Each structure stands twice: as structure tokens, then as C-alpha cells.
Amino acid sequence: MEDLITLDESGRMVPTDREALAQMVATLLDGPLDQPALLRRAGVGLLVLGRSDEAITTLTQALALADRKLAIAVHINLGDAHRYSGDLEAAEPQYQVAFQLAEAHAPDMLYFCFQHLGKQRLDQGRTKEARALLEEALQQRRAEGDPTLIAATRTALRLVDQAEGAARTADGLFEISD
Length: 178
Prior knowledge:
The structure is a single chain. This protein is mostly helical and 178 residues long. The chain has two domains: 1-104, Tetratricopeptide repeat domain (Serine Threonine Protein Phosphatase 5, Tetratricopeptide repeat, Alpha Horseshoe), CATH 1.25.40; 106-178. Helices cover 78% and strands 3% of the residues. The chain contains eight helices and two strands; from the N terminus they run ββαααααααα. It has helices at 18-30, 36-48, 52-65, 68-84, 88-105, 110-123, 127-144, 147-177; strands at residues 5-7, 13-15. Strands 1-2 form a two-stranded antiparallel sheet. Strand 1 and strand 2 (13-15) form a beta hairpin. Helix 6 runs parallel beside helix 8 (147-177).
């Protein structure tokens, strides 16, 4: 499924081939619904297709069946489903639970938590916190050595730079009009 999803200029997952992704999701949902990893994949596909409510339902089903490590990823995906639909308040606890689980049971997954919580902070306009979280994600991702993950974090940090630049410009315009 990874070849059917990419990141857009705002760092959000989008389909590379909407029809093929929709077909894959349909196939996954036609299969056994007692396998949390498959439910998670279907939920992510639904999220990317913009079907947030269905994604949340499917990911919640996956979470009910998931072990601790998979639960971290599912909580992140649930946070993304809420965040993508604009419900930042509902997204927050999902990212926090993922972070707590990763700290306690899977420290090797913390960089995913830092990344997604950082993007949440960016969407909330909390750029200082976003930068700190994303810089931690970048440090850990560099240590892992995955160029795709490193590039995703660099993209997110560029978005923080843009948000901070826009805020400075707005502040400057406000001062001029006083």
C-alpha cells in the first residue's frame, strides 16, 4: 500500500492512485476483520481517501484487537484521522496515549510519536513546541538512517519555518497598522 500513498506539500498523506487505493481498501475490508494489522492498513487507506469517519471506525476496531506495539501505530493513525478532519481536540489524546505506550513499551517507536505530535502542534499554531518535537524526531530518525522518514521530518520542519515566517509577517503588518 505504501506505493499508493505519498506526502503532499503540507506533509499530509494523499493517494498516488485514488482508484487503486480504494480497490485495495475494499479488498482489505472484504477479508477477515479479526486481524488488527489488516484493519489498520484499511483504516489508513480510508484516512488517505478522505473517509475520516470510516477510518476512525476501522482504526477503533483495529485498536480493540491490537497488541501494545501495534496499538501505538493505531493511536497515531487515529490522531491523524481526527487531525485531518479538523478535530484537533479529539486528535490530541490519541497522540498522547501513543507517546505513553511508546515510552513504556516500545522506545524504538518514539520518533513516530514525536513526528505526529509535532505536526499536531503545528496545526494548533504552537510552532515552538512543534519545532522541538520535530527536531527530536529528526535526531532519532537520523540515528535510524531511513531517508524517507528523515525527508518527512525535514518537510514538517519547513512547514514550521513557513508558519513562523507568516506569523512574523502578520505581526509586522499589525504593528504598521497601529
